[in-house]
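When time allows, look over one protein, given below as sequence and tokens. The question is which stretches look regular and which look disordered:
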Amino acid sequence: GEAEAAGTAASGAAEPGAVGAADESDSEDDGVRNMVGDVPLEWYDEYDHIGYGLDGQRLARPPQLDELDALIERYDKGNSRTVYDALHGELVELTDDDVGMIRRIQGNQYPDANFDPYPDTVEWVSSVPEKEPLWARPEPKSRFVPSVWERKRIVRLVRAMRSESYAKSQAAQAAAKERQRPDYNYAIWDETLEDLTREQRRLMYKRLNAPKQPPPTNAESYNPPAEYLLSAEEEAEWLATDREDRPSNFVPRKYDSLRRVPAYTNLPMERFQRCLDLYLCPRTQRAKLDIAPESLLPQLPDLSQLEPYPKRLSASYAADAGCVRTLSVHAGGQWLATGGDDGIVRVWEVATGRCTLSWDLGGVGGGGATPDAAPSAPRAAEPIHRLAFAPAADRSMLAVSIGPIVLLVALPHLHPPAPQPAQLTRAATAAIASAAVPSADAAALLAPPAAAGASVIAWARCDVPPPVVLAGRQAADEPRLPPALSIAHAKAAKQLAWHPRCDYFASVVPEGGARAVLLHQISRRVSQQPFAKSKGRIESVLFHSTRPHLFVATQREVRVYDLLKQTLVKKLSAEVQWISSMALHPAGDNLVVGSYDKSVVWFDLDLGTRPYKALRSHTLAVRAVAFHSSLPLFASASDDLGVQVFHGQVHDDLGSNATIVPLKRLEVHAAGQAGLGVMDCAFHPQQPWLFSCGADGAVHLYT
């Protein structure tokens, strides 16, 4: 308010032509004045000068005082009525007259105190009636005679209004106003063609172009290929066929040159039929939609708004195992277990990349095992098909599938020793102490069964080989022999799945027939067969996170069973040729299925039994899919050496569908034998990190 008005007054007071400033502008003490003119000063913000003088030289920008220096200078001078003139770059002291003018402007008054808004009226023409005229000249005669030009114009207007064209134009305008009514019904006999304008005729009788005839084929050439010519039998059959049933209305002929081609005898009839089609057949014109291809693509959010997610390679774990087929991350997030074709289980420390424990189990799962036979002496090395940690942070139990044997091992040194339970026997307590493993895992493996039950396959104590002593470790830190249980299957178990309570787990034997899926209970040492007959080749199973449901994936569909009611809940059609893996969202309402035919399928279990979205981000078979336990992330690993990371947000609103956005493609692995690529992938339970293993023998960590 007052400061802006003061600046305006100061600028006005500093103008060369302002009243009371002529003497100041002529003074020799004043510096060069800014003659930039009436232009915005913002134009000079990017320059070192502020304007130009009378001689056209640039005026340097004067130094400006900050608010503190200006306040000190104002108090030193004893005058608080100082304002900054931005045009000339100087401080101006306001006089009493300037302050009074500013206050009058703020009060919506006239700036000049001596201005009289109501002056006396100046009577330029006297308001007193005069008796005599001001001039004595008589009025001219032309003011009393009608104008000739106005008369001629009126005559032309009258003749135009009496003409027939004017009447037609008035009628056309009235008809046009009538047609503009909402309740008007158009009738083609209301007006003739002569009454319409050219534009109305064009709109009413819009000409439709004739449809284009198909281009001539090879059979209509004067020198067609030999396969288009008819043989004598085909020509006789063509002549014997009715005219309406013939495939063509001519017989292909071959001529040596174009000038030997005779006149076409069917030309008049074809032209006549063409004219009949154009005259009698109804036609319509369809406008083609001009749609930009970019507008058909979905609007994806900015990737910076979807962070955090794995972006780069941060660490590599040198396994030297040939093909690393499987990996599993401990629920605490500190340990990583891997297994491959060499039959060795390695446990890595995620933070340091150091291999802390290593077991050679290649001789445990030898071939030829039967369901009722316990494991015998070590045999030839068997590859490790699958391993999985128990899904609890306070447990260190590891399930390993090697050949036809499934081992349950309580890994030492992953947790500090805990107090031992009182219900264990003295021998079991001694075994636990010697193994130095958590009491919950040791109790589950060494304690006697809680209740006797009929098991379809045999359970037995197994003496696994001791861990390999790694270089650089102290002798006191050497791991001891861990307790283990073995479960003998008919054939190799290719997949393992833990129940969230850690007392149950499932194994999948694709070639096992009716025993392809087995459910194992650790506390009772019992294995159950949920299906009496085979439902097809079973590839994978999953337990629901909160409900008593079991997901069973065959080659082309996923079946959901209720374990309590022992009924089929629903059947999901994956619309793929061969399912390879599947992963369940932590909330339990969405399922991701990977397949060997390069696609990843997303199911919304609340929508129906058909896929909600099919993603084709890989060029070869998809080997594994995985969800993050807390972040909206999921990933897929494929034989094309790539790991694709996706953003998969599931909304709490039931009316909103899941948001799926591809984030990053991580391609670090090298090609292995038999064209295999990335074999498995898994997320860190707390951090936005991703682990992957491949046929090149490498294990990578992406952050």
